[in-house]
Amino acid sequence: MPSAMSSSANPRNPLQTTDPYAREHQIFPTLSSEQIKRCKPFGDEEALLASTVLFERGDRSVDFFIVLEGFVEIYEYGPGRVNVIHVHGLNQFTGELDLFNRRKILVGGRMGQDGRVLRISPSSFRRLITAEPDIGEIIMRAFILRRTAFISHAQGGVTLIDPGTSADGVRLERFLRRNGYPITAMREMGGDYDSIMQRYGLSSDQLPVVVIHLNNQLLSKPSNHELAEALGLVEDIDCSQVVDVAIVGGGPAGLSAAVYAASEGLTTLLLEAEAPGGQASTSSKIENYLGFPTGISGEALAGRAQIQAMKFGATICLPKRVTGLNCSQYPYGVEFCAETDQHRVVKARTVVIASGATYRTLSLPNGCSFDNSGIYYAATALEGDICRDEEVIVVGGGNSAGQATVFLSARARHVHLLIRRDSLADTMSDYLIGRILSSDRITLHPYTEIVELEGDGHLEAVAWANVKTGTIEKHPIRHVFLMIGAQPNTSWLPEEIQTDRHGFILTGQSVDRSHHWPLERAPMNLETSQPGIFAVGDVQSGSTKRVASGVGLGAISVSHVHAFLAEQLEKPST
Questions:
Q1: What integer is the mean pLDDT of 426-448?
Q2: Residue 148: φ, ψ to 5°
Q3: pTM of the predicted model, to two decimals?
Q4: Is residue 400 part of a domain?
Q5: Are 26 and 138 in a shared domain?
């Protein structure tokens, strides 16, 4: 039988503990005979011939297989070839994270020789991991590590061809990485870059291009939704069914609500416009979140929460932008669309609004002209690599700006932190302030704002002014990270949902009950001016802008959901 990793795959060094493949006993575990015995009631044994295909890349809702005799080859499609990337032996199992959803899978699987397998259907697989928690834990850990390995080794993914760092190329790469999709980004001229350009007959005006190797499909400058559709990231929503709770937004608060709602047996639908994580995903490292003393990136935290929600049965649909909410009928109607979709409506007995807030742009005539080509609203590894060894500017005095400044200082030549106040003391955590003030790679500029941006296609120079002295300085800086204030994502809400003067949603005691509140009881703490509709996280008026706060409020909202649903059951039928 072939070794666990074929020679065509990336080599593994057991000393490289950052490589998921180095944890072979966890990523490719072998179940015991006793565990296999407990699995058998959930599936059917089958004798299969060599080369029988068990599943193919692009399939949805595939079965889960345990090898009883022989071995199963896992393969991917690369440029012009098929690579065997792993072989599952006796008592090992197939699958990775897409077994928890209805998205297209990344790899294919086939029998390497005549043998027998235990085939378990998707519905029985969910019953297995619930009924046998020790086996479920082994499977879950393996699935997470397998997806991590796919990403780190760029296996089972796509190739992005982009000469440099175009705005569209940055957008596409960010979308894929934030959604946990493996990607090989080809930006270096010469060698493999020239070869793949010739292979597909590409010209520079077509770039950036995403190559899907399964069928050699080329997508030139696709929108996020077009790319998601082509890769099978989009899950269809059955709008004829009424869900217990519809969650709008996939930041920490929305993901928390999805985890708790689904784990407590509620039919749960989460609609997200781009990718899970919200503003938290822009943080390269969150160090003050409970339980992570060495810190965790916002993307990693959101990724784990998404897996938890899907494990419990929540449906997470993206990229789906919510465009309206019909409060005139019950169940409520949540209107959504994608870029190419007609507007559709899903009915929900309760709604949790977790649509969050976005960073403001610069109030300059060309303030949005350099988005993704010099102006960024996140500081992750992608952006860090783009500006490596260059001077950069971070604008903002909150924790997100502080985290970005510290992170970028390890990659950029120098970081200029611009704030309009005299100090960071009132807006930033002390541990971040200490790091910023003690670093010789960071300069804090108080009373400072950007007054001019210059560039042709890409940002080339920035001028900033001291608001007290009026002194203006111009610098040849090509990268600016904006984290200035929050603008609530509430433009889609109907007038029945009360907001404060800044557009943030009023809840609980802040709701004006004299204005069309229909019940005798007062609104619950997170309830809006419409019964059964709740607001959590950054979109809520007066909320604390912290990840932990959002997670806590998301969990609390589910107790409110239960209370409201109980009220509905107690109502006399008409």
A1: 96
A2: -60, -40
A3: 0.89
A4: yes
A5: yes
Q: Is residue 137 pLDDT above 50, yes or no?
A: yes
Domain holding 396: CATH number? 3.50.50.60
Q: Of 479, 275, 258, which Cα lies nearest the Cα of 377? A: 479
User: Phi and psi for 173 in degrees, rounded to 5?
Assistant: -65, -40
Strand order in the sheet with 81-88: 53-55, 108-111, 72-78, 81-88
Confidence label for 265 from pLDDT (cuts 50, 70 and 90):
very high
Regarding whether 418 and 325 lie in a shared domain, the answer is: no
219 touches 207 (CB < 8 A): no
Count structural domains, the chain.
4
Range of 218's domain? 158-231
Residues 326 and 261 in one domain: yes
| Same domain flag for 135 and 277 | no
Both structure tokens of 337: 């669309």
Tell whether the model's pLDDT for residue 84 goes beyond 90. Answer: yes
Q: What is the pLDDT of residues 315-328, one digit of tens each?
A: 999 999 999 999 99
Domain boundary residue among 107, 128, 153? Answer: 153
Please say if the pLDDT value at position 11 is more than 70. Answer: no
Read off the CATH number of the domain in which 213 is found: 3.40.30.10
Whether the Cβ atoms of residue 481 and residue 404 lie closer than 8 Å to each other? yes
CA separation, residue 44 to residues 62, 65, 120, 121, 124 (Å): 15, 10, 7, 9, 11
15 contact partners, CB below 8 Å, separation of at least 6 = 22
| Type of residue at 175 | F
386-399 residues labelled b (16+ CB within 10 A) or e (exposed): bbeeebbbbbbbbb
CA distance linking residue 319 with residue 274, whole number of Å: 5
Residues paired with residue 353 on neighbouring β-strands, in sequence order? 248, 535
**% of the chain at pLDDT higher than 70:** 95
Residues 513-557 have pLDDT tens digits of 988 899 999 999 999 999 999 999 999 999 888 899 999 999 999
CATH number at residue 65: 2.60.120.10
Question: Longest C-alpha distance within the chain, in Å?
Answer: 81
Q: Are residues 329 and 256 in the same domain?
A: yes
Asked, for residue 306, whether it belongs to a domain, the answer is yes
Angle between helices 298-311 and 133-153 (to 10 degrees): 140
Domain boundary residue among 204, 231, 258?
231
**Does 368 map to a domain?**
no
CA dist 160 and 196 (Å) reads 11
In SS3 terms, 433-487 reads as HHHHHHCCCEEEECCEEEEEEEEECEEEEEEEEECCCCCEEEECCCCEEECCCEE
Average pLDDT over residues 208-236: 91
User: CA separation (Å) from 510 to 112, 184, 326, 504, 527?
Assistant: 64, 49, 22, 11, 10
Task: Characterize the bridge pairing of strands 458-466 and 448-456.
Answer: antiparallel
Do 447 and 339 lie in a common domain? no
Q: And the tokens for 491?
A: 């433009």
Which residues have C-beta within 8 Å of that of residue 423, sequence separation ≥ 6?
446
Same domain, 337 and 407: no
